[in-house]
Structures are given as structure tokens and as C-alpha cells.
Amino acid sequence: MNLASLLETWGDSNVLAMAGALVGFIFGLAAQRTRFCARAAVIECCEGQAGDRFSVWWLAFGACLVGVQALVLAGWLKPSDSRYIASLGSISGAVLGGLFFGAGMILTRGCASRLLILSANGNLRALLSGLVFAVTVQASIAGWLAPARQAMTAWWPVNGGPSRDLLQLSGIGPSGGMVLALLALATGFYFFFKTHQRRWGLALGAVIAGLSIALGWGLTQAIALQSFEAVQIQSLSFSSGSAEMLMRALSTSTSPSAGFDAGLLPATFLGSLLGALVGGDFKLEGFKTENKLGHYLIGAVLMGFGAVLAGGCTVGAGMTGGSLFSLTAWLTLIAIWLGAGMAWRINRRMGWPI
């Protein structure tokens, strides 16, 4: 059965949900087994060592860039149709949102995707933080925090189109993007095998985690081309999807229609759960004496507000949007690392657990 037949039989929304489920399961399993974590990568850099976690994250990022740029060069993906390029953006939102998100992920001990991965491994602290994150995302989209988010976004807007496309702004085009992507992947392998000698299985897992983002772009683009309805091309993102799943759990009558995100988050959870069970990592964990509940809650609020303000999280904006060389996505990724670095330094000075 080809894609057109699937769309006719099951409908656009269900096929998109199945695509999200496939991508999410692959990412969840790979991320769990490789300990993929942007927060841990930042901390290693702050401590002056590009160690295990940084090398896994950078290798996944390099694979993501190469996979997505290969789709672009092959004509199977049109970055200009994505929200990261086509729609109105905000420089101020990207920078401030990234700083808030980076600081928050230090306090919660994980970014949005990592909290979901850890929740599936039995970490109740991550589960609580993830719920607060989802509530804050919804409040920032259409609730009490929306006016503050809209005001900050309006400080420095940027038009959609070429103004948000780094490859067009720099003049290097798609071929230049592939060169940069290959360079990132090559340095990723260098850092990886410098710290993980002969661990090919771990390298494969990191590459699969990165390529899952390319898979998401490719599948949604293919569905958009075959569908008679307007279909948004997208890939991994855990901020808006978290709010959507929260609203779906609270009220099925008012929840948005099914789509890519409807399959993404549950399947990511299941993929991580399978990885934890296979690897013997599943363990129920609650708060301990040295854990600070206030840090987790404040961090989750900062991440939720920052993710909506910036247009995504470390995966949603930093990798999914960054793989298209979106200006605001790259600004968000840089700001997340800076915000996390500053929060880490403050935590160290205050003597708080990191």
C-alpha cells in the first residue's frame, strides 16, 4: 500500500499520527540507550572537558544536519515551507526564550525531551517537572503568560522567508549547508571516538537519534505532497506537543485534532520505556533530601515559558529548526547553551546540587 492509499484509507490526521509515532519510538529508544542529553553536554563544556555526553550530543546533531540537508539537496524537503523559515519570527524571542530555557533545564536536570525520556525510566521528579512544563507551555500559548510572551516577541521581530534563512543570508545555499553539515558530522565522529574508543553501537545510536529528525521532516513533507489538505511539515518538537497531550488528557472534546504530535510523545515514552526495560535501567525514583523541589518547579516554568517564547526546545528549535539553518533556531540554540552555562555557574557558587 502506497502513501496515497494510506491517506485515502486512514485520513491525513491518522497517517500523520502514525508518522509521529514511528519517529518518536525510534528517537525515544535511541536517546534512552545513548543517554542523549543536552544539559549534560553543556555541563561537560562548562567543566572544560568535551567528554562522553558532549560527544554523543554533537554526533547526533551532526547526523541530524547531514540527514536533513541531504533531503533538501535531493529535492525531498522544502525548508521554505516550514514554520522555522516561512512564518514571522522574533530575534528577541529566540534569545530571551533560549536563555530562560537553558537556565530552566539546569534546574530541572534535563531539557523537555530528556524529562520525557527519564519519566519513562521511572523518574518521578522528571514526570512532575514535565507536567509543570506542559502547563506552563499552555499558559504561555493562550493563558496568563501569553501577554508577557507576546510583548517580548514584539521587541525585535523578523520577517519570514529569506530573512530567517541563514543559507540565503550568507549566500552559500544548500550546497554550502551540506558542507557545514558534513563538517559537523566529521567533528562529531572525532570527538566521539576520542572519548568512546571502538564503541560502534553507541555511535550508531547517536546517529539514529539525529537521523530520526530527518525522518520526521521527510515523512511529513511526503504526506504534505500527497494530501489534498494543507499539512504542516514538521519534525521532533516537545513543547507544543506536551501542551497538546495535556489538553487531550484533560478534555477530549476540546482537544485539538490528531496529528504528528499526537503520536510523537506517547511513542517517545514507549521507546524510552522499552530501552530502559531492555537495559535494566527502569527504577522508580522520587525526591530525596538533597533534591530541591523548588528548583525543579521553577526550572520547569522557565523552560515552558522559554520554549514558547523561542519557538521550541533544544530538540524542537535547536536541532529540528537548526537542521534547516533557520536564523532564529540557531540563535535559540546558542542562547540555550549560554543560559545553561550561566545557571550552572550560579548553582556552583551557591553550592546547590547540579
Give an account of the 3D structure.
- The protein is mainly α.
- The protein is 72% helix and 1% strand.
- It has a two-stranded antiparallel sheet with strand order 1-2.
- The termini are far apart.
- The relative contact order is 0.24.
Report a brief summary of the structure.
The chain contains 17 helices and 2 strands. It is mainly α and 354 residues long.
* Number of discrete helical segments: 17
Task: Give a short account of the largest sheet.
Answer: 2 strands, antiparallel
Portion of residues in beta strands equals: under 5%
Q: List the secondary-structure elements in sequence, H or E.
A: HHHHHEHHHHEHHHHHHHH
Gap between N and C termini, in Å? 51 Å
Spatial strand order of the main sheet: 1-2
The shape, in one word, is globular
In helices, the fraction of residues equals over 70%
- Extended strand count: 2
Radius of gyration, CA atoms, in whole angstroms: 19 Å
Low-confidence stretches: none
How confident is the prediction overall: mean pLDDT?
A: 90
Question: Topology, pairings included?
Answer:
Blueprint: H1 3-10, H2 12-34, H3 38-46, H4 52-73, H5 83-86, E1 89-90, H6 91-107, H7 112-120, H8 124-142, H9 146-153, E2 157-158, H10 166-170, H11 173-195, H12 200-226, H13 240-250, H14 260-279, H15 293-310, H16 314-321, H17 327-350
Antiparallel strand pairs: 1-2
Helix pairs in contact: 1-2, 2-12, 2-14, 3-4, 3-17, 4-11, 4-12, 6-15, 6-17, 7-8, 7-14, 8-9, 8-13, 8-15, 9-15, 13-14, 16-17
Record keyword descriptors for this entry:
globular; 17 helices; two-stranded antiparallel sheet; 354 residues; mainly alpha; single chain
